[in-house]
Specification:
The chain is α/β, with parallel strands linked by helices. Helices cover 46% and strands 10% of the residues. The protein contains 24 helices and 18 strands. The strands form 5 sheets. It has an 8-stranded mixed β-sheet with strand order 7-6-10-1-11-12-4-13, with helices on both faces. The chain has a 4-stranded antiparallel β-sheet with strand order 15-16-17-18. Strands 2-3 form a two-stranded antiparallel ribbon. α2 packs parallel to α4 and α11 packs across α23. The longest helix is centred in the first third of the chain and has 29 residues. It binds (2R)-2,3-dihydroxypropyl phosphate (GP9) and manganese (II) ion.
Length: 660
């Protein structure tokens, strides 16, 4: 004890004491107040270690101050500030189940989501632990129980501390990237960054990002918007008069088929259909099915697909638009458009936590009135897999909410079970279905979870029929992106029944289903080339909501005026005539490579390329510059995200009240 006392009276000892105490407080927050969802030994180990690197680094800065009257106040100051940051996040988390961004802290965020008057109500008795150590140390210092050590450490030692801190941080980062590749590049979820890298790193990371975003916004001007508008106006494809408004007033039910690719449709393995129900929908006369429809996502995967569908703008070339800009950008998105133009109620059903892909913020910004995330369902034990509630349960357990929604409604179901690594409990597998043998377990399992998803959708359709909702609705189904990435070339070749795959095969492998089903529809299989960017204008036209004034980059899939060019996020593309993928050019119809380009071919290809490049670049301008904030759309009121709160305890009661 005495030796410990003596140690604390040295600068290094005092520093060590504060570091350990702050570390302990952070872990206390991790395990009591935050829900970081660590799983497995690696993640727990990262969790334990991640506060250490930044704490050593920040607290160690005090060593560069030689005089004790600077060293001690600086060290204590850093400790207090860090504790303030930690504690504010604890309070904030209790209300929003999320971490504070720089935008929320500085109030830059259009709606100040900062701490409201209710913050007192958000305190907890155990909060004493966040402050107790600081009070005790200050008292001990006051009574000279902790003495100031006049001996400064040399700059060499100070530098050694900084170096050790950086090494600890580096190792932490490396292990985190190994466990969760592209953690920072894709920023799936703020919770993930805190879980893997700690709160300080998250805040610093967010600071850099916010600066970057603010710079882009500041330099954006209204005149850029005019350029964009000119482009979207000139590419507006007027609706097919036979189809315009045929679904007017109907409920819109969108089913997001996770990782579901078009090649699964009508595919048989071991003589069995993988997705018999979706196949029957695909072939049904009452379905408009598209067999040349492509996903167009980038690193934001599901969130990019959602953005494409809700807004008819592209995701970002890097990272996820939802995660980086979605909290503050101005959207003119489907839920708000349908609500303002045709009185639709809007809701999302999804069995994962709300903060994933920053949905909790983005949805409010898009005007979603309800978001039924994991907190609305029982997701305990084997009811969920990696990304949340199993699909069959999602469809079943959300009925009580759906039935209380005011009609007409616009709802979206985001499924999760058919997601990498395609795990499924044996109780959910169909004993009559045998997976193929592609040489890759991941790929084999993909068929099993896709089969499960098919059954889940079938069950939901049975409900829609029985409840009578099918008669009053239009049902839109789409695959969000590939499940089997380009890395699985051997398995893809096996699936396609080929020896090896070309870039053309890989391009066509990016097809996903897009189907519109409605009772009484005279549908069929449509071969137009299109993608996710085209969905919103298609739905708008079917509902009889004119979209010629909107800034949207897609074209109604049922229009006869389409240019049939499908840009991919990386600048490659597919068109009706030619395809460019991985730098190679092909004839789209045959897949034959274009070895020698004629002058006229080159001209056509250059023209397509120019369109694709401009399309992507102008969409990026809209998003990065937040240009829609300048756009005064007649009859459209900008969404105010503070009008929405999603609360599992109150929502059902609220719904019932409105219904009455
Ligand atoms: C999680 C889910 C998955 O909530 O939507 O997103 P993904 O990994 O496919 O982008
Ligand atoms: Mn997805």
């Amino acid at each position: 004890m005495k030796r410990l006392g003596k140690f604390v009276n040295t600068r290094i000892g005092f520093f060590a004491l504060l570091v350990v105490l702050f570390w302990a407080k952070t872990l206390f927050a991790y395990f009591t107040d935050f829900k970081l969802g660590a799983e497995g030994i690696v993640q727990y180990a990262i969790l334990l270690v991640n506060p250490l690197g930044t704490t050593l680094l920040l607290f160690g800065l005090a060593f560069y101050f030689k005089r004790s009257r600077f060293f001690y106040p600086v060290l204590m100051g850093i400790d207090v500030l860090n504790t303030v940051l930690l504690y504010l996040n604890v309070i904030y988390y209790r209300e929003f189940t999320d971490f504070m961004t720089i935008a929320t802290m500085t109030g830059y965020s259009k709606v100040n989501q900062g701490l409201s008057g209710s913050s007192i109500a958000l305190t907890n008795l155990h909060d004493v632990f966040y402050w107790l150590d600081i009070v005790v140390i200050l008292v001990l210092m006051l009574f000279r129980k902790i003495k100031f050590d006049p001996r400064a450490v040399s700059h060499r030692v100070a530098f050694a501390f900084t170096s050790v801190a950086l090494v600890v941080f580096g190792v932490n980062l490396a292990v985190a990237e190994m466990d969760r590749p592209q953690l920072l590049g894709r920023t799936f979820d703020r919770t993930y960054i805190v879980k893997y890298l700690g709160l300080d790193t998250f805040t610093a990371y967010d600071l850099v990002k916010t600066e970057h975003v603010n710079d882009m916004r500041k330099s954006a001007t209204k005149s850029e918007l005019e350029k964009v508008k000119k482009f979207t106006d000139s590419h507006y494809a007027s609706p097919n008069v036979k189809m315009y408004g045929i679904a007017k007033g109907r409920n819109v039910i969108v089913i997001h088929l996770e990782s579901f690719q078009q090649f699964l449709i009508n595919l048989k393995v071991n003589g069995q259909e993988v997705t018999p129900f979706l196949n029957s929908l695909y072939k049904s006369k009452e379905t408009y099915a598209f067999d040349n429809f492509f996903h167009q996502v980038g690193q934001g995967k599901t969130s990019d697909a959602e953005n494409l569908l809700e807004t008819s703008t592209f995701g970002l070339s890097q990272g996820s638009l939802f995660a980086t800009l979605g909290s503050d950008n101005t959207f003119e998105a489907a839920p708000a458009i349908l609500n303002q133009r045709a009185g639709y109620t809007s809701a999302v059903f999804h069995g994962n936590i709300a903060s994933f892909w920053n949905r909790n913020n983005v949805y409010k910004n898009m005007g979603y009135q309800y978001f039924f995330d994991a907190s609305y369902y029982d997701t305990s034990g084997d009811k969920s897999t990696g990304y949340g509630l199993k699909d069959k349960l999602l469809f079943k357990d959300s009925i009580k909410y759906l039935e209380n929604l005011q009609q007409p409604f616009y709802v979206k179901y985001i499924t999760v079970t058919n997601h990498f690594p395609f795990d499924l409990d044996s109780e959910d597998t169909d004993p009559n279905f045998t997976a193929p043998d592609t040489g890759s377990t991941t790929v084999d399992n993909y068929f099993v979870t896709a089969h499960y998803l098919d059954q889940a959708v079938k069950e939901f359709f049975t409900y829609l029929d029985k409840s009578g909702l099918a008669k009053k609705s239009i049902i839109v189904l789409y695959g969000d992106h590939y499940g089997i990435s380009d890395n699985h070339k051997a398995a893809i070749a096996k699936i396609l029944g080929k020896k090896s795959v070309t870039n053309y095969d890989l391009a066509m492998f990016q097809k996903v289903p897009f189907m519109i089903n409605m009772e009484g529809l005279k549908g069929g299989i449509d071969h137009t080339y299109g993608g996710e960017i085209d969905v919103l204008p298609t739905i708008e036209d079917l509902l009889g909501i004119s979209s010629d004034k909107y800034i949207q980059f897609g074209q109604d899939l049922l229009s006869t005026k389409r240019n049939q060019i499908v840009p991919f996020r990386d600048g490659d593309w597919v068109s009706k005539t030619y395809t460019k993928y991985g730098g190679d050019y092909y004839y789209t119809a045959t897949g034959k490579p274009i070895t020698k380009m004629t002058t006229s071919q080159k001209k056509q290809i250059d023209k397509i390329q120019k369109y694709v490049t401009t399309d992507l670049a102008l969409s990026d301008k809209v998003i990065n510059g937040d240009l829609l904030r300048f756009y005064k759309l007649p009859g459209f009121t900008k969404v105010n995200k503070s009008s929405y709160t999603y609360n599992a305890q109150k929502s059902l009661a609220n719904l019932k009240k409105v219904q009455q």
